[in-house]
Amino acid sequence: MARRLKRNGVLHSDWARGHVVVAADGIEICSSFVRCCDQCMERKVAHKVGDELRDDIQYYHRIVAVMVVSTAFPIPLGIRFQKDGETEVSSTLVLLHDLKGQLGCQFFDLVVADALYLRKPFVDEIEKIG
Ligand SMILES: [Zn+2]
């Protein structure tokens, strides 16, 4: 579907001079001290329960997303749940490699991301992806 949208010019934008621009970012979702699932990531967090400060295990998920942002409205291309031991940046690279496999390396022209991504390994890998 994404390839068809591009072929039909739906992803074209004037402000991006015809380039398809994607944004990559990560976010934490579903954090809880009580509820968890088999896929939850865990961390120890000091938090207040009443007047008591306790160290408890907090369960959470992190996802990374890549979205086309050069269009009139953002179009999600892919999301990925970050796994234990991965960073947001490494998880995003896995997602970008997956998207390259599904859409080809010429599907988008530019990747924008926040300063967290401005590291040599990320830039090197983006260049390898093409
Ligand atoms: Zn969970």
Descriptive notes:
The protein has helices at residues 2-7, 88-103, 120-129; strands spanning 21-32, 41-49, 52-68, 75-81, 110-112. By secondary structure, it is α+β, with helices and mostly antiparallel strands. It has one domain. Strands 1, 2, 3, 4 and 5 form a five-stranded mixed sheet that branches. It is elongated and about 60 Å long. The two termini are 21 Å apart. The site of zinc ion has 6 residues, from strand 3.
Average residue-wise pLDDT: 92
| Rg, Å, rounded | 18 Å
Name the beta content range: 35-45%
**Tally of extended strands?**
5
Distance N to C terminus: 21 Å
Q: Which class of secondary structure composition applies to the elements?
A: alpha+beta
Helicity level, as a percent range? 10-25%
Uncertain runs are: none
User: What ligands can be seen in this structure?
Assistant: zinc ion
For the report, how would you describe the main beta sheet? 5 strands, mixed
How many structurally independent domains?
1
* Distinct helical segment count: 3
> What is the 3D shape?
elongated
What is the helix/strand order?
A: HEEEEHEH
The gist of it:
25% of the residues lie in helices and 37% in strands. The chain is an alpha+beta fold. Strands 1, 2, 3, 4 and 5 form a 5-stranded mixed sheet that branches.
Strand and helix layout:
Blueprint: H1 2-7, E1 21-32, E2 41-49, E3 52-68, E4 75-81, H2 88-103, E5 110-112, H3 120-129
Parallel strand pairs: 1-5
Antiparallel strand pairs: 1-3, 2-3, 3-4
The chain binds zinc ion (ZN).
